[in-house]
Amino acid sequence: MSAADVTAILLSLGVLLASARILGELARRVGQPAILGEILAGLLLGPTVLGKFAPEVGAYLFAPSGSPGIFRSGLNQLSVTLFLLVAGMEIDLSAVWRQGRTAIAVSLSGIVIPFAIGFLIALYVPGALDNERGIAQHHFALFFATALSISALPVIAKTLMDINLFRTDLGVIVISAAICEDLIGWIVFAIVLGLIGKDQGHTLPIGETITWVVVFAVGMLTIGRGLFHRVLPWVQAYASWPGGVLGFVLTVTLFSAAFTEWIGVHAIFGAFMAGVALGDSPHLRERTRTTIEQFVSFFFAPLFFASLALKVDFIANFDLALVALVLVVACIGKVIGCGLGARLAGSPWRQSWAIGCAMNSRGAMEIILGTLALQYGVIGERLFVALVIMALVTSMLSGPLIQRILKRKKQRRFADHLGAKAFVARLRSADRFEAIRELVVAAAAQAGIDVEAATMAVSDRERQMATGLSNGIAVPHGRLAGLQAPVAADELARAGIDFDSPDGAPARIIILLLTPVDDDGAQLDLLADIARAFADPNMRELVMQVTSYTEFRALLKAERAA
Amino acid sequence: MSAADVTAILLSLGVLLASARILGELARRVGQPAILGEILAGLLLGPTVLGKFAPEVGAYLFAPSGSPGIFRSGLNQLSVTLFLLVAGMEIDLSAVWRQGRTAIAVSLSGIVIPFAIGFLIALYVPGALDNERGIAQHHFALFFATALSISALPVIAKTLMDINLFRTDLGVIVISAAICEDLIGWIVFAIVLGLIGKDQGHTLPIGETITWVVVFAVGMLTIGRGLFHRVLPWVQAYASWPGGVLGFVLTVTLFSAAFTEWIGVHAIFGAFMAGVALGDSPHLRERTRTTIEQFVSFFFAPLFFASLALKVDFIANFDLALVALVLVVACIGKVIGCGLGARLAGSPWRQSWAIGCAMNSRGAMEIILGTLALQYGVIGERLFVALVIMALVTSMLSGPLIQRILKRKKQRRFADHLGAKAFVARLRSADRFEAIRELVVAAAAQAGIDVEAATMAVSDRERQMATGLSNGIAVPHGRLAGLQAPVAADELARAGIDFDSPDGAPARIIILLLTPVDDDGAQLDLLADIARAFADPNMRELVMQVTSYTEFRALLKAERAA
Predict the structure, then answer these.
(1) A514 bridge partner residues
(2) Using a CB-CB distance cutoff of 8 angstroms, which residues of chain B are in contact with residue A551?
(3) Given this chain, do its domains B66-406 and B414-561 carry the same CATH topology?
């Protein structure tokens, strides 16, 4: 590999990673999944945009041929393989058994109904979908049916967390059902890939491929799972830590992936099953999982997702009728399938529809499936574009739909209402009423409130009952007429100010909360969030060393993620 | 990329990773650095062994041509780039300033003297080294001089930790000097690469390359460092955690690496400088460093080091005279250079020689330098083999030599004396003297001691003064005549046994220590190690859930690493 090749490779990886990250962050900022931004990055860098306006730059960075192109293609294979390892590790089989009937009903009905709809449309509505590549129509129908049945556990889990439903009964049912669906979906897809591979002259007879898929899946879930569970503590005890375990997990994954690639289904199926079998063992420590998950999620995955749109022109291949058809059929099949399953298992109607909407996210999984299908020549670029759009739209719709159906709100964070101007790193006041005025002035700089009225409201409240909590935190607060949204202000008082707290400690972290008069929940939600944020003594220590608003936000975020 | 290519890639990566890990662990087991085992893995899988006995297997797995070969070659570039990022992140510039005079004297003298010796030998002793590739003799001499001057911070740090010198004055001087040497060494090597690249028709004029190297290095250490220090908290505050920071670090690294590759020195120089500039900021959190470091150390690095010997036949290219010459010149230059520097800066003679021996480790850095030189056509395979062997031998010699000079011993761990048979997960006894007998019986199963004599010795000691420590730990102990090495036995008593501890808590973790009569230090060292191991309340909780010896060892190791 020449120096020019190495330069091109490093530059293209840098550009992909940076743009995927930036657009991923922007997507999150507007409440959308990061993957949307990552795919958009590829869209901008691929033939859709960059290829049109600066084709020579695009050709230099992302040429599909030559050594850099071959390397990137291999790296994509490795990336998606490791991504599926992580997806597999998130599968907690015991959760499915614990939930039992409802989860299984939701997942089975959520697979069978979309599968049937997809299969029948692809087979019996000629011209609805175009089988551009001319593969056997019933194989094409099988693929399309599978594409409609798949769901995306990581996106679903993230959506439920965002709207604070993750730990509820509904959340547990949805997660268990999604686990079950993922597992069945990938096994079915592996078999479909085997069937299609046969059309393209793969070496193993199809009967053997299917037998191997089933033997491998069952073996991994029983013998493999038991074996890893026994071997992991042994590796941890006798090999270096954490290198031994990391090496073991990655080696098992690479071998499983090589095996499934060899039997004619894609490598990702082996990686996924390895992830399921390994991830199920409590002996796989949280630290090891985190290391793998973070590196894969923030290095390999963005590279893979940003590369998706590098080869396909999304504008030229955008077919509105096809996109609409795929989207409508996918939503109807999944929402009705899962919703009916939940209803039959005894959930009330409203909750059943919420479950259906939650299961409708296709996220990364659908996109990976589409990429493989494109690569194996099962579908053309137009259907690929339609599947990607369907995956993104279903993922984006899921959260808002559940919120509407269940009338839930997003979890409130006091930090979301705390602007840079309302943060005071060094308090000047000496007593609590002075401190309250200082905080109100800071809050006014942020949100334009009436300083006198606010000071009076908060001071009155403070006189009725002191707002010092334990452990050096005080939360003076008040309600203001005419305020549109809550406002927070934060001060750090190194010496401490007496807020008459139950434990007698002077307050060193003082947070002012001003909430609209008519928003009942806001005050309580935000107070609870503050208590949670500073529950850890270590966190309280670190906060006192902060010297700027930016550092304060960074700390809050890092501790929350920890 | 075809399915067969993907299978071959995944299989070869799996084989490389697994064998690198297993041999790395074996190397550690016999007290050697893991990299020795990793390189050995490549030796076994490459032309040296596998290529001789099963050439068709070797050709299938590790063919240098074709798509899998191109991919592996690209992955090696990426791996070594990321490895240098981690090496750079370990560089703590402020440590150099804090140590000041001695560190700078050691490092400068430790560069200048070996450099001079290497340069003169290569230039004026014709035939000593063979310039097989026929590049300009003074460029070849410059390379060889640099190869002798380089040192390997990670190996040096590890050696010092192993012999418990890391936190001593001597340790701090050595680390600071090694940091300084690494920094200067890589800048010099970058310039040498530029000079040599010119011979091979690289596009930039050499003056420009050298200017760029200096501007880039100085810029990274000043502007870059300041900029990252300001930007990091901003990224942490406004981007998702930890994805934002991880993405930022990796993107900066890829761009720096692409830039230095473009100016005609290798990508790793850019990655190294990016690591130095980023790693110096306290805003780069420990968690982020750990994630990057672990994934790189246990995925990318083993793949790279195991790949080294895949292309070279180490037996055919082994030239005893050349190996001996390189080894002797390298050791003399470095030990005398650094030793003299330390002596001149005021260290006593004995300590100065210890510093010289500590700085003599070449480890991974020399091997990477040799690989690049081989790849750029600066050296032939015989000199490459000699450099690799020199790097490994100097790394292996360093620890034992320092121990001999300073008469230091390795840190003792009680777990090293605790065998599987001497571990009792459920204590049956009801009082402490019964418990002592039960422990002695367990220890006897392990080491063949006289149960009656040992029970009496330990019980007598216990009667003189109870051995219960605070927090539910008891350490009954005794000295036995005729014992060769310490023996430990461990019991977990869920209900607790009264060992008359100062805090009145019953002992739940009971560890028996039997030490030889004539080994004064052993008892105290091991007692201190036990106290340290169970200092964390969380650890004591986890220990009580352990059900087997293997789990116990795993826990001890994981907690120690945490």
Answers:
(1) A478, A487
(2) 233, 237
(3) no
How many angstroms separate the CA atoms of A442 and A488, rounded?
9
Contacts with B75 from chain A: Cβ below 8 Å: 71, 74-75, 78
Q: B47: which 2 tokens?
A: 């032309």
Which segment of A334-338, A431-435, A501-505 scores lowest on mean pLDDT?
A501-505
Please state, as a whole number, how many other Cβ atoms lie within 10 Å of the Cβ of residue B487: 25
Nearest CA in chain A to B548: A233
Q: Which amino acid belongs to residue B355?
A: I
Q: Say how far apart CA A127 and CA A137 lie, in whole Å.
A: 12
**Cα–Cα distance for residue pair B507/B493, rounded to 1 Å:** 7
Digit-coded pLDDT (tens) for A300-335:
999 999 998 888 888 999 999 999 999 999 999 999
Question: What's the longest Cα–Cα distance across chain A?
Answer: 83
pLDDT on residue A547: 80
Quick one: average pLDDT of B328-349?
93
Query: B66-406 has which fold?
Result: Na+/H+ antiporter like fold (1.20.1530)
Lowest mean pLDDT among A203-207, B243-247, B540-544: A203-207
More confident residue, B427 or B317: B317
Q: Is-catalytic flag, B477?
A: yes
Q: Do B236 and A28 touch (CB under 8 A)?
A: no
The 8-class DSSP code of residue A468 comes to B
Do β-strands B487-497 and B507-516 pair in parallel, antiparallel, or remain unpaired? antiparallel
Q: Give the bridge partners for B480, in sequence order.
A: B516
**Residues in chain A within 8 Å Cβ distance of B74:** 1, 5-6, 9, 67-68, 70-71, 74-75
Domain borders along chain A are: 3-62, 66-406, 414-561
Q: Tell me if B237 and A14 make a contact (CB, 8 A cut-off).
A: no
Residue B561 has pLDDT above 60, yes or no: no
Nearest to A21 among B13, B78, B247 (CB): B247
Higher per-residue confidence, B275 vs B264: B275
CB atoms within 10 A of CB A191: 20
Q: How far apart are CA A180 and CA A151, in angstroms?
A: 10
Task: Give the per-residue pLDDT at B562.
Answer: 46
- A468 bridge partner residues: A474
Beta carbons of A13 and B254 less than 8 Å apart? yes
Report residue B372's pLDDT band, with 50, 70 and 90 as the boundaries.
confident
| Interface-testing mutation among A6, A36, A200, A305, with chain B (most B C-beta atoms within 10 A) | A6
Cβ within 8 Å, pair A10-B73: no
Q: In Å, how far is B259's CA from the nearest CA of chain A? A: 7
Q: Among A442, A447, A511, which residue's Cα sits nearest to residue A482?
A: A447
ipTM over 0.90: no
Average pLDDT score over chain A = 85
Output the CATH code of domain B414-561.
3.40.930.10
- Chain B residues whose beta carbon lies within 8 Å of the beta carbon of residue A34: 240, 243
On whether the CB atoms of residues B43 and B309 are closer than 8 A, the answer is yes
CB B105 within 8 Å of CB B344: yes
Task: Look up residue B417 and give its DSSP letter.
Answer: G
**CB-based contact A261 B7, cutoff 8 Å:** yes
